[in-house]
Amino acid sequence: MRYFQGKTVWLTGASSGIGLAMAQQLAEAGAHLILTSRRHDALEQVRQSLAHPERHQVLALDLSQPEQAALMAKDALGDQIIDILINNAGVSQRSLILETDMSVYRQLMEIDYFGVIALTKLVLPRMVERRAGQIVTVSSVAGKVGTKLRSGYNGAKFGVIGFMDSLRAEMAQYGLTVTSILPGFINTQVAHNSLTGDGTALGHEDPDNAGGISAEECARKSLEAIAKQKAEVVVGSGLSKLAPFLQRFFPGLVRRMIAKR
Ligand SMILES: NC(=O)c1ccc[n+]([C@@H]2O[C@H](COP(=O)([O-])OP(=O)(O)OC[C@H]3O[C@@H](n4cnc5c(N)ncnc54)[C@H](OP(=O)(O)O)[C@@H]3O)[C@@H](O)[C@H]2O)c1
């Protein structure tokens, strides 16, 4: 993908799953990467495994504290030009509303919603000044269709699509591109890392994610959409890919199907 050649891409969630696959494909495509997640050592391993490791840098940040993460990033990045920010880091949920602590809702919002806003606000002024740049956020089909066990995740992923829509409208006059990626079920560690009602990780896989498309395929389709500067794209297969369409045109049917699952 020639689009990424020589571009500086700040990619969050680069240590595993979709982000790791994106990092590999972006490095192959000639991008210069800033790799972010919490785990510095894991990111350093990723960096060394990529094509042209010397072109890439590691920036470990904890997005559960978005303002602090943004301050650390500001210090680390200084005046560096960012061509594309990909807000991909995220955490999911597997717990019923009746059994979920408020602190879990707050944590999901910090990482999946406020984390996106904090990093976007950090890179935006320079992009506006340069009249160039692209902000990408990996939301989810769960940002269009609410299901059981994901109430906080649904809220954050719905919210972030709204934020991106507003950002797109405000940035059109400056020529910036704003892209939302909505994956369906993808075979990654997302279920394993999902928060349960008391905030601990679920710790095992989920058959829906295990049966989904690979992280590599998701990354390839997402990067194609980014290169085409699409506003919004759904990536996945089967029912999870169809769900936003069904929700829009047959909402009653979708409500009944979800309540029965
Ligand atoms: N897999 C799916 O079926 C699916 C479907 C729809 C949407 N998505 C979205 O796709 C994105 C990537 O998920 P994935 O499937 O690749 O899951 P994953 O394998 O669990 O990867 C999540 C990534 O986010 C990082 N992360 C988690 N908490 C963080 C924090 N507090 N601060 C900074 N980084 C943090 C993790 O790195 P560290 O552990 O090193 O921090 C990791 O790199 C997420 O936004 C997810 O919601 C996934």
Automatic annotation (TrEMBL):
Tell me yes or no: is Oxidoreductase among this UniProt entry's keywords.
Answer: yes
User: Does Ubl conjugation show up as a keyword for this record?
Assistant: no
- Supply the alphabetized keyword list: Oxidoreductase
Q: Which GO terms describe its molecular function?
A: oxidoreductase activity
Coiled-coil-forming residues are: none
Give the superkingdom in one word. Answer: Bacteria
Q: Which residues form the Ketoreductase domain?
A: 7-189
GO CC list: membrane
Report the Gene3D superfamilies cross-referenced here. Answer: NAD(P)-binding Rossmann-like Domain (3.40.50.720)
Q: Which InterPro entries match?
A: KR_dom, NAD(P)-bd_dom_sf, Sc_DH/Rdtase_CS, SDR_fam
PANTHER family (UniProt xref) = DEHYDROGENASE/REDUCTASE SDR FAMILY MEMBER 7B (PTHR44196), DEHYDROGENASE_REDUCTASE SDR FAMILY MEMBER 7B (PTHR44196:SF1)
Family membership, please give it. Answer: Belongs to the short-chain dehydrogenases/reductases (SDR) family.
Annotated protein name in UniProt: Short chain dehydrogenase
Q: Which organism is it from?
A: Pseudidiomarina marina
